[in-house]
Amino acid sequence: MKIWSSEHVLEHPWEMVTTAAMQKYPNPMNPRVVGVDVLDRHVDPSRKLHSHRLLSTEWGLPSIVKSTNISFTNMVSVDERLTYKQHPQDPEKTVLTQEAIITVKAVSLSSYLEGLMASSISSNANKGREAMEWVIHKLNTKIEDLAVSARGSIRTPMAAAAALVEKK
Amino acid sequence: MNSVGEACTDMKREYDQCFNRWFAEKFLKGDGSGDPCTDLFKRYQQCVQVSLAPDPPRRLLQPALFSAIPPKLPGCLSI
Q1: Which residues 128-157 in chain A show a CB within 8 A of chain B?
Q2: Would you call B2 and A34 a contact, using CB atoms and an 8 Å cutoff?
Q3: Where do the domains of chain A lie?
Q4: Closest Cα to residue B21, out of A15, A161, A162, A155?
Q5: Chain B neighbors of A125, CB-CB under 8 A
Q6: pLDDT tens sequence across B3-28
Q7: pTM listed for this prediction
Q8: Does A116 or A35 have the greater pLDDT score?
Q9: CA B40 – CA B43 distance, rounded (Å)
Q10: Of the partner residues B1, B28, B65, the one whose CB lies closest to the CB of residue A79
Q11: What is the architecture of the domain spanning A2-167?
Q12: Under a CB-based contact definition with an 8 Å cutoff, are residues A8 and A95 in contact?
């Protein structure tokens, strides 16, 4: 097992970040994600919202892998957790903590390969953060457009964000 | 965004619109009133379960590693 972790500050309030996280896909940085489904969702007695989601991805395996029927899912698994928390010093910012556990079954992975995987996770993490910025920018731009065209309509920014979702 | 089941995409989008609106306008503002999307969710869910039934993704059958490790940060969103 290898643990990789990283911390990053997003210059946006927590409510905006979580709204964007719920609508992260599709985005141009993650073209491999071709489907997102909610398998379960509920609010628990402590008012915590739980969402169990399935992301469908397409990686386009090279033909040699297809022909030899190698399944890497049997050998390597990566569990990743992203946590968004309001910045302790600045309520207009959000701290993103990312953690990954890499588990390899039966095969002893060289430290070189472990390093490669950590590199890959790290670079994907950067793409993920770019994706969040892209989604937030899109939501903010449309909020401004709505505000300009609203003409006296009294709406909070978040309600406007919800309204633009309905327009999609 | 599409659903894993092609037939479910429209139901998914309808549900997503309802959820995103409730999430931003009610849940994030601390409004504890009920979830208005339950019927839409049930319909969408039934479709997804049918789509996944013949070949459920292997990982769904295994508990996620992180579910055994409670997050140390209360009041935050863990995805």
Answers
A1: none
A2: yes
A3: 2-167
A4: A162
A5: none
A6: 888 899 999 999 999 999 999 999 99
A7: 0.71
A8: A35
A9: 5
A10: B65
A11: 2-Layer Sandwich (3.30)
A12: yes
